[in-house]
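PROTEIN DESIGN WORKSHEET
SECTION A - STRUCTURE
LENGTH: 127
TOKENS:
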């Protein structure tokens, strides 16, 4: 069984920064792509960014481009999301997700393209 565990969420003032981590484990863990999503109350799950394990190619939603940075540590099976210049609109539960096999990047924003999900971590940005 594959487990994804997010950490690093919390309360931060507008303009501040947070770094989220997503640690993957499990005997059968294998992943081609890791994605970060978020979901605010009453809204659909929103794609933020994705990174490939091999090569480290990154992809960003326009809403976070320039403010959020995704990175990975292959040795630790961990993916990070550095979030800067946070705004109250960034308040949401943040999820990481893993896809076993590679697929075209046009699929990365689709939550249905991922095989495993973490439980989420709350990020609250106060004004």
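SECTION B - SEQUENCE
RESIDUE ASSIGNMENT:
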């Amino acid at each position: 069984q594959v487990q994804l565990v997010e950490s690093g969420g919390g309360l931060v003032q507008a303009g501040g920064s947070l770094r989220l981590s997503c640690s993957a484990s499990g005997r059968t863990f294998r992943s081609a792509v890791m994605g970060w999503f978020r979901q605010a109350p009453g809204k659909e799950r929103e794609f933020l960014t994705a990174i490939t394990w091999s090569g480290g190619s990154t992809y960003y939603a326009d809403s976070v481009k320039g403010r959020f940075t995704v990175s990975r540590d292959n040795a630790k099976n961990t993916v990070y999301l550095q979030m800067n210049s946070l705004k109250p609109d960034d308040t949401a539960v943040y999820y990481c997700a893993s896809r076993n096999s590679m697929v075209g990047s046009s699929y990365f924003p689709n939550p249905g393209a991922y095989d495993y999900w973490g439980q989420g971590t709350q990020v609250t940005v106060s004004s």
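SECTION C - NOTES
The chain has a mean pLDDT of 94.
Residues 50 and 119 are 18 Å apart (CA to CA).
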